Amino acid sequence: MTIESIISGAVSKALKALYGADVDAGTIVPQATRKEFEGNLTIVVFPYLKASHKSPEATATEIGEWLVANEPAVSKFNVVKGFLNISVNPSFWLEVLHEIAEDPDYGITKADEDSELVMVEYSSPNTNKPLHLGHVRNNLLGYSLSRILQANGKKVVKTNIVNDRGIHICKSMLAWQKWGNGATPESTGKKGDHLIGDFYVEFDKHYKQEVAELMEKGLTKEEAEAQSPLMLEAREMLRKWEAGDEEVRNLWKTMNGWVYEGFDETYKKMGVDFDKIYYESDTYLEGKDLVLGGIEKGIMYRKDDGSVWADLTPDGLDHKLLLRADGTSVYMTQDIGTAKLRYQDYPIDKMIYVVGNEQNYHFQVLSLLLDKLGFKWGKDLTHFSYGMVELPEGKMKSREGTVVDADDLMDQMIESARETSAERFADMPAEEAAEVSRMVGLGALKYFLLKVDPKKNMLFNPKESIDFNGNTGPFLQYTYARIQSVIRRAGGVDMDSKPASEPNEKEATLIQKVADFPAVVKEAGRTYSPALIANYCYDLAKEYNQFYHDYSILKEEEENKRALRLLLSAVVARTLKEGVSLLGMEMPERM
Description:
With 591 residues, the chain is an alpha/beta fold. Strand 1 (31-32) and strand 2 form a beta hairpin. The protein has 3 domains: 3-88, 2-Layer Sandwich (Gyrase A, domain 2); 122-390, HUPs (Rossmann fold); 406-581, Isoleucyl-tRNA Synthetase, Domain 1 (Orthogonal Bundle), CATH 1.10.730. The protein contains 22 helices and 14 strands.
């Protein structure tokens, strides 16, 4: 039982004893006492004034006196206006520390046979370009969310839908045919996804040139874009692909193969993975069949040009295109087909799509269409909508080749960690220093992108993220490594030991912070927010460093106090490591 639930129950009894009021303990929510006041937990008494018929101060004082007299966990209290600040008995915090230390999975709930099955989709790359900074935030959010849901006792399937077909893919293919001169990853020394991305940029360069030339001849921009020979060729290639043209299909398989090898390398370096990968080329036909079937059911309609639409105006939306006039599919068609296949493959209880907020409308429509097509789970899908990530220089554009490449970014972060920590790593073997640089560089990247509320747009500043002193990944890693150093010098810590020294106020505050971990994990799972975990870990690390600064550990002469501080340090380290693992971060044992 947590201290919060003990206090809630005790306050409920106090209200009954003092004022005859029946107040459900579940409605009484103690908050952590603000740092400027003495105490561990605070109760706001304003809701109980009708029962007490007294002033806020008098009511808080009477409840506090009752708690001290009747609840062993409460040692003293103070009142600030209508706020009752409660100090928890140090002996209680000692018991809490022992319980936490004995539980290696403290704060983590394991799944069982009856656990809810949640599928989380993230990444969703196109095979016409390498992964970039936007993809990095997507992958890290999706992977972290999966870890957090697993820590809340859910069974989780991590899934990816690869957008491996469509006009954008044909643009890269066509550019390779025209200007590639048979280039391969082997002949160029480039990762396959980078090579294909170069041809996507090449297509856009020639396409813009064609449009400009046509506009010089008197055409409007719209007319020039429609009549561009390059774009017409790309559309014809897409039509041939969907018709199963052997030459087009073989080129498509070859070039996509290059890209997948590149993606796999990037995912491995990033530390994310998937349980199941779906491909749009396998799912879009399922979607087409469902859409065509929707015409017969009167859910969709066909226009004179042959295109297929859904009228969503009765639902407050507009008309949505599902099949183009030439019969080719749009993203929505593919997502309908993918959803059907997923529910055939797994007994999913919850489907979560990790996709940027520019697709909010798309998922509104998808949910509606799936429901109209008879899939009862359509209305229950969740779009985990997150904000965009930008650099100080501004937005990124794939077609213009101005994106921040994921591979380059990770390499840059690792190199920055190596340069920043050169003095720290001076005594390490080169191989260990390289591994720690990797952990710190990627930890800095992951923490910086995940500490922000997912719903918010954010600015990524690489230099700020690598700082060892701020609210950063390296600060957490350094705190962990510092504790491990203390434990090594002490000759280790027995987690089953039960030191008898009662915690002082600072130690009690630190124990309380660790004890909050299960509630933070639960709330992060409820709200789909890795940021809650990140900022909890920062607060815990900050609290520990203050404790480390104020009190001696290894030089403490009183054996019980030394044992208490060592056990507390070990518990903090374990909690930090468990917490950041939910963000996909690793902890170096020394720095």
